[in-house]
Amino acid sequence: MSNSLKILPWGTFVRSTAILRRISGGTLKLIVFLASLTWGLETLAATTNMNPKVVIVCFVNDHGEILPAAQTNKVVKPDAEWRKLLTPEQYQIARGKGTERAFCGIFHDHKKPGLYSCICCDLPLFSASAKFDSGTGWPSFFAPVAKENVVSHTDNSFGMRRVEILCARCDAHLGHVFDDGPKPTGLRYCLNSASMVFKEKKSAQK
Ligand SMILES: [Zn+2]
Fold this sequence. Notes:
Elements: H1 10-22, H2 25-50, E1 54-57, E2 70-73, H3 79-85, H4 88-95, E3 114-118, E4 124-127, E5 131-132, E6 140-141, E7 150-155, E8 162-167, E9 173-178, E10 188-191, E11 196-200
Antiparallel strand pairs: 1-2, 3-4, 3-11, 5-6, 6-10, 7-8, 8-9, 9-10
The chain binds zinc ion.
Zinc ion is lined by residues 118, 120-121, 123, 167, 169-170, 172.
């Protein structure tokens, strides 16, 4: 902190003003634009941090393309309502942090192109283009459609230290993420089929 209070040497000031004079009007506008953008994003993030009822996530358009991050309301429902909306298995896994048996989920060997969304709130989570055969018996992905859409928490249950992954919009339990995945991320997002719904799209990412 004390560094910010130091007075700049005169030579540094002269060099700085000389650099500023050489900056063209267009460059200056670009700098102002980037500064405004940064300020806007920070404000958006600060707003979200102050209000736990909103979250910043990425949606997709009709072509399956990821849209810029945007603020939306968190999806919060009473437990009784989740029970009505989900099958007993979906409820036990997505709301009760359960795990389906290996090789038993409907998506572990599913290869169609499209998007996997949250079973509870329909937020897009994973693209088929990031799916790979991990041999574990659970649908596995090396990355989510957008880092904003999946949040992670340390999970120390069952005597193991794992990283749980949840839907950013409704806190549905999705599975866990491990660091033994393939390139380009080296991560393995290990999912429960019951936590997701699949939407096949002709124009979805290949
Ligand atoms: Zn969700």
